[in-house]
Task: structure prediction
Amino acid sequence: MMKKEIADAVSFSFCHTLIARHIERKEQYERELYRTTQMRGNQK
Result:
């Protein structure tokens, strides 16, 4: 029982870390996208 709980906690924190990294990357990507579209808009 205890081993299963530990395994669940580990897999949960692992998934949480992956999700957090994914969100971070997505925000960075959107920021870059916004910056490039702003630059393109200024060139017109």
User: Anything to note?
Assistant: The helical segments are 2-43. The CA atoms of residues 1 and 7 lie 10 Å apart. The mean pLDDT is 90.
